[in-house]
């Protein structure tokens, strides 16, 4: 009678922050000040960088001056009871006010702030002061400090044994003395080829996210607990599966 042991899938893992947010450039402009770098801890609402607002302020002053002139023309038209001119001038005043409101909104967005309490994982603008940036360009990536997502790369030979809800452990080289418990959340149909093998992407979460030593991008080795099998099967099943495949390929 053979003893039984725990069958685990040993695979490479990467830790990532869950629900990271990208801070994008709101309009074409220039970087005037950068306050943070990757690895910095930021609070919600903290200033990350400043965009040049001189052109916007000049444009606002021009629109404001134009609005004042239109208001004077409106009063003159009212005094003359010139109804067509009143309607035309009122429409121009509304347009100028809308333009000023738009510029005020853009001026507020020259301050790029953190959306929540987290850590900067991408975005070093300290060497890009005065450099042009385009609308939609990602300036920073901010990740929350409360939750992690673990990416597990599972060999295609073992993916059939992995299921949602299974538990496991993650060990990182930076903290080899600690094993972090994980739970499988999702098995994706996405595979990547590495070192002559195909690996499927499996997503998991940590049961405990309180460790301050964890950082996004860390890599380590994980075990996914699959089942309890006989030790002789655990030690030999990979070799037997390989022989079966080769035999089938060679068989005429």
What features would you describe in this structure?
The strands form three sheets. Strands 1-10-13-12-11-14 form a six-stranded antiparallel beta barrel. A four-stranded antiparallel beta sheet has the order 2-9-7-4, with no helix packed on it. It has a four-stranded antiparallel beta sheet with strand order 6-5-3-8, with no helix packed on it. It has about 250 residues and is an alpha+beta fold. The relative contact order is 0.23. It has helices spanning about 55-80, 85-110, 230-250; strands at about 5-15, 20-25, 30-35, 40, 45-50, 110-115, 120, 130-135, 140-145, 150-155, 165-170, 175-195, 195-205, 220-230. It is about 30% helix and about 40% strand. Helix 1 runs antiparallel to helix 2.
How many strands in all? 14
In percent terms, what proportion of residues is strand? 35-45%
Shape: elongated
Low-confidence stretches: 1-12
* Secondary-structure element series: EEEEEHHEEEEEEEEEH
Mean pLDDT: 80
For the largest beta-sheet, the strand count, sense and barrel status come to: 6 strands, antiparallel, barrel
* Count of individual helical segments: 3
């Amino acid at each position: 009678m053979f003893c039984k042991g725990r069958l685990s899938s040993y695979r490479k893992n990467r830790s990532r922050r869950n629900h990271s947010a990208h801070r994008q450039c709101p309009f074409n402009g220039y970087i005037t000040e950068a306050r943070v770098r990757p690895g910095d801890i930021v609070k919600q609402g903290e200033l990350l960088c400043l965009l040049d607002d001189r052109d916007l302020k000049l444009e606002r002053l021009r629109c404001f001056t134009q609005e004042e002139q239109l208001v004077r023309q409106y009063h003159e038209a009212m005094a003359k009871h010139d109804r067509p001119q009143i309607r035309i001038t009122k429409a121009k005043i509304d347009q100028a006010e809308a333009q000023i409101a738009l510029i005020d909104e853009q001026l507020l967005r020259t301050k790029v702030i953190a959306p929540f309490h987290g850590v900067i994982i991408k975005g070093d603008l300290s060497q890009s002061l005065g450099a042009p940036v385009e609308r939609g360009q990602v300036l920073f990536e901010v990740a929350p400090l409360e939750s992690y997502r673990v990416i597990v790369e599972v060999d295609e030979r073992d993916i059939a044994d992995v299921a949602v809800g299974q538990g496991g452990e993650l060990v990182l080289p930076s903290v080899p003395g600690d094993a972090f418990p994980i739970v499988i959340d999702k098995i994706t149909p996405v595979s990547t080829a590495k070192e002559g093998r195909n690996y499927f992407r499996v997503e998991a979460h940590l049961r405990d996210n309180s460790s301050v030593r964890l950082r996004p991008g860390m890599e380590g080795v994980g075990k996914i607990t699959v089942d309890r099998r006989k030790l002789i099967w655990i030690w030999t099943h990979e070799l037997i599966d390989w022989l079966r495949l080769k035999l089938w390929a060679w068989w005429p």
